[in-house]
UniProtKB/TrEMBL annotation:
Signal peptide: 1-23
Keywords: Signal
Protein name: Uncharacterized protein
Amino acid sequence: MARLLPLLLAAAAVIAVIQFVAPAFVGVPAPAARAQTALRARGGGEYDVSDADIEAFYASVTSGGGGDPPKGTVISELIVKFFHGEFTPQGFIRYSGLWKGPPPGGIGKKDIAVGVAKLKEQMANPMFVTKGGGGAGVDETQKVVDDGKGWVWLAADMGPGGLAVELFKSVPYGKRALFVAKQANVEEAFSKADWGAVLANVEKTLGG
């Protein structure tokens, strides 16, 4: 009995410690954890794109010398591919004639200039606008054609045929936002375009 007494006292001490420490390991209730996950899925918190973020993005792509994007870059090729042509109510008809170059027969400065002019026209008065906004990861029913903020975006996305660009009048969450302008003053943005910054945006996704 004398030998058992120390063992019983030690066991009682261990139980007391466990009872004291256990409450510190209580987990977060499941509903609260799910709510936090849902907030992130809706674009809450870290994935929001605020008005200040848009202004900062605008400043980043309009800190250059303007003009047209250089020949041979992804940006100039996308602009020519998706804006050098005719916009009709039935859709966009891509130019299929001989490229002016130089050199003739290849895409050059003359063709890029035509594509940029068409892009400006469409950003000022877009015929086709893709739905956006709503936050990162939202479904189609929560997206809008125009968020009323006055911005028009040029954004790219990867499709079966490679990169394609579209125009948005709401934040293009989940897309590769390339350029943005105030719809009421598109010329201002192009007069200060930083095509190096625009090119770098090809590798970035907006809003998470």
